Amino acid sequence: MSAATATFTALRPRLHGIAYRMLGSVPEAEDVVQDVWLRWHGADAAHIENAEAWLVAATTRRAIDQLRAARTRREHYVGIWLPEPVLTDDSATPEDLQELASDVSVAFLALLERLAPEARAAFLLREVFDEDYPEIAHVLGKSEAACRQLVHRAKEQLRDERPRFEVNRALHADLVRRFAGAMASGDFRSMREILAPDAVLMGDGGGYVSSFPKPMEGGVRIAQLLYAPSIRNDRGMHVAIASVNGELAVLRYFAGALESVQTFATEDGHITAIHVQRNPEKLARFVTGQAGFRPL
């Protein structure tokens, strides 16, 4: 293995992490990393002083371009577009999972969709990847003052929608486990009690399967929706839990086939939001990922 290949291989998880957080899509992130690899392979190493800085800059710039194109496509997306779920390592420590979930949970990635591409890049580089402002300025081709303003405005834009308090990971996991058990057993009362009265459900069917064109509001309505399959379980419903994007999630199967990946936001001892991924294309990649996933 050449020195250039070894360097890229060592940094690939970081580059993939940047691209995935920018795009919320595994194949789009992999396309970005592959493009950067080709550029890296053809670059003149003699003119590169800092390999990591070069690769991070190239990945971020390519991800910005890709996100601009993706946004145009997502304007015509059928229904609600949600980030693609990714299986995460069950063997990670609780501290590692908490840190991961804080910046890669499905709810957080969905929230980042509100930011313009350059603002999203500046926010992620500073708040998640701890880059200094001179480096961010170099990546974006802007002044340090302009980058500070981008980050400040992004934080202001996201502040009202982010949880007011740090989520207790143990409580979050307990709520998800209880909700999964209630769903599996058809315990409507428990489902209703675990959901906040003003809970919101968002589903992504990608135009391939039925879903809701806008968020469903109300804990009782959501409980009724998720309880319905247990009334007539002739489709062989099965519920499992797994670590997805750093948090415990519910996997729902019918007749042995994965029907949805459900991730949750919790606050004050209740589930406040459910993101239901039903797009068959995204689920197919998730199933593939179960056999050999790449940690984010």
Blueprint of the fold:
Layout lengths: L2 H21 L2 H17 L8 H24 L19 H11 L1 H7 L4 H11 L5 H8 L3 H16 L9 H17 L2 H7 E10 L11 E2 L1 H13 L5 E8 L2 E8 L2 E11 L2 E8 L2 H12 L5
Parallel strand pairs: 1-6
Antiparallel strand pairs: 1-2, 3-4, 4-5, 5-6
Helix pairs in contact: 1-2, 1-3, 2-3, 3-7, 4-5, 6-8, 7-8, 9-10, 10-11
CATH class of the domain at 169-291: Alpha Beta
Task: Give the biggest beta sheet.
Answer: 6 strands, mixed
Q: How is the CATH topology of the domain at 169-291 named?
A: Nuclear Transport Factor 2, Chain: A
Q: Characterize the overall form.
A: elongated
Q: What is the SS-derived class?
A: alpha+beta
Give an overview in words.
By secondary structure, this protein is α+β, with helices and mostly antiparallel strands. Among the domains are: 1-76, Rna Polymerase Sigma Factor, Chain: A (Orthogonal Bundle); 169-291, Nuclear Transport Factor 2, Chain: A (Roll). Helices cover 55% and strands 16% of the residues. It has twelve helices and six strands. It has helices at residues 3-23, 26-42, 51-74, 94-104, 106-112, 117-127, 133-140, 144-159, 169-185, 188-194, 219-231, 280-291; strands spanning 195-204, 216-217, 237-244, 247-254, 257-267, 270-277. The protein has a six-stranded mixed β-sheet, with helices on both faces. A hairpin with a 2-residue loop joins β3 and β4 (247-254). α10 runs antiparallel to α11. It is elongated and about 65 Å long. 36% of the residues are buried.
